[in-house]
Design goal:
By secondary structure, the protein is an alpha+beta fold. The protein contains 4 helices and 2 strands.
Length: about 110
């Protein structure tokens, strides 16, 4: 069966196929990671922000982020202010999975 492709003259994303071919990753996780990789480099990631741009709810997005973390595509690290207080979470997404070094949302 043929695939009809569009001419890419703007509004497209270039990404590695690695995560799309990973059979240990759910289709939902592949989709969320692909959507994340399409966002601008300066996009501020948060659960609320991802929930705002997705059809799925907070629990679904949260579970999918946890899957991406377990599979090595996401590292979340607590951000701290100048007083050492937790001020948020820094999300680092990877196009290719990495070995997990610590528990989710590490310090």
């Amino acid at each position: 069966m043929p695939i009809v492709r569009e001419k890419k003259d703007g509004n497209f994303t270039v990404m590695n196929n690695y995560h799309l071919r990973d059979q240990n990753l759910s289709l939902k996780a592949k989709g969320l990671l692909s959507m994340v990789l399409s966002l601008p480099d300066d996009w501020e990631f948060s659960l609320a922000g991802l929930t705002a741009i997705c059809k799925e709810g907070k629990d679904s997005i949260s579970n999918t982020l946890f899957e991406l973390e377990r599979k090595g595509y996401l590292v979340r690290k607590r951000a701290r202010n100048e007083h050492g207080w937790i001020s948020g979470v820094v999300y680092t997404f990877y196009e290719r999975s990495r070995p997990r070094r610590s528990s989710p949302v590490s310090d």
